[in-house]
Automatic annotation (TrEMBL):
<dbReference type="Pfam" id="PF09335">
    <property type="entry name" value="VTT_dom"/>
</dbReference>
<keyword id="KW-1133">Transmembrane helix</keyword>
<comment type="similarity">
    <text>Belongs to the TMEM41 family.</text>
</comment>
<feature type="domain" description="VTT">
    <location>
        <begin position="91"/>
        <end position="211"/>
    </location>
</feature>
<protein>
    <recommendedName>
        <fullName>VTT domain-containing protein</fullName>
    </recommendedName>
</protein>
<keyword id="KW-0732">Signal</keyword>
<feature type="transmembrane region" description="Helical">
    <location>
        <begin position="73"/>
        <end position="100"/>
    </location>
</feature>
<dbReference type="InterPro" id="IPR045014">
    <property type="entry name" value="TM41A/B"/>
</dbReference>
<feature type="transmembrane region" description="Helical">
    <location>
        <begin position="12"/>
        <end position="35"/>
    </location>
</feature>
<dbReference type="InterPro" id="IPR032816">
    <property type="entry name" value="VTT_dom"/>
</dbReference>
<feature type="transmembrane region" description="Helical">
    <location>
        <begin position="184"/>
        <end position="205"/>
    </location>
</feature>
<keyword id="KW-0812">Transmembrane</keyword>
<keyword id="KW-0472">Membrane</keyword>
<feature type="transmembrane region" description="Helical">
    <location>
        <begin position="112"/>
        <end position="138"/>
    </location>
</feature>
<feature type="transmembrane region" description="Helical">
    <location>
        <begin position="225"/>
        <end position="244"/>
    </location>
</feature>
């Protein structure tokens, strides 16, 4: 039995490695070989990287906005590819891509696009975790897993509302929810829908900031005290129907 488990683990790690190499290879091709020639921008390859701070983001935004005039389809595919890559492999920094979405596509289209990519990328992370991550996650974060499992078990009757509240008020990191949901037995349909709806307010805040990118001095400016209070209020409203339903069932 231990030998069989070892073989399964090696097989799983091999598949994960192949998936990661394929995704990384495609992203590298998009930022090197597949970059269309343009007389307007000669240094595009130099700025095509994941931004680590607002200065990098501003430089990338200015470049892509100019490049988008000549090659809008390329910019769209590159943006979607980059966003899904970060979400699938639980890489921090999606906030910068949300801001970039607002700068490139405006508030309404940017929010819809970011929310759709968030739900899609989160679902891909879900399946990746389902394929490989059970033992690793259980061994790495046993206390967090036990706490989250207890919460999920206590809220089975109002699971969609509970997941919405988790997304609306990010007490637990979203990447952790994405990676642990299949282990906790959360159905993919509920997971994907709550990820799309629950993260939409946060995406909207970030995307909206894309229109005033030049005025931002820190990512912390996005989530001030008032905004956090608003998100907590929305989370409370989302949890209310499930709470009332549970109370009514106990009374009947």
């Amino acid at each position: 039995m231990p030998r069989l488990q070892c073989l399964i683990a090696r097989y799983t790690i091999g598949w994960i490695t192949v998936i990661w190499l394929a995704a990384t290879g495609w992203l590298l091709l998009m930022t090197t070989v597949f970059v269309p020639d343009s007389e307007a921008i000669q240094n595009l390859r130099d700025v095509l990287k994941f931004p680590g701070n607002l200065e990098d983001l501003k430089t990338l935004t200015e470049t892509l906005l100019e490049f988008k005039k000549f090659h809008p389809l390329y910019v769209y595919i590159l943006f979607c590819t980059s966003y899904l890559y970060k979400q699938t492999f639980a890489i921090p920094g999606s906030v910068f891509l949300n801001i970039l979405s607002g700068a490139l596509y405006g508030t309404v289209k940017g929010t819809c696009l970011s929310s759709l990519l968030t739900a899609t990328g989160a679902s891909m992370c879900y399946f990746l975790s389902l394929l490989s991550g059970t033992d690793f996650i259980l061994n790495t974060w046993p206390e967090k897993m036990s706490h989250l499992r207890a919460q999920v078990d206590n809220n089975q009757e109002r699971l969609p509302y509970f997941l919405l509240s988790l997304r609306l008020v990010p007490v637990s990191p979203n990447w952790f929810i994405n990676a642990t949901s299949p282990i906790l037995g959360i159905p993919i349909k509920i997971f994907a829908v709550t990820a799309f709806i629950g993260l939409m307010p946060y995406n909207f805040v970030c995307v909206k900031a894309g229109s005033v990118l030049s005025e931002l001095t820190s990512v912390n400016d996005l989530l001030n005290f008032q905004m956090v209070c608003n998100l907590m209020l929305v989370a409370g409203v989302a949890s209310l129907p499930g709470f009332l339903n549970k109370k009514l069932q106990k009374m009947s």
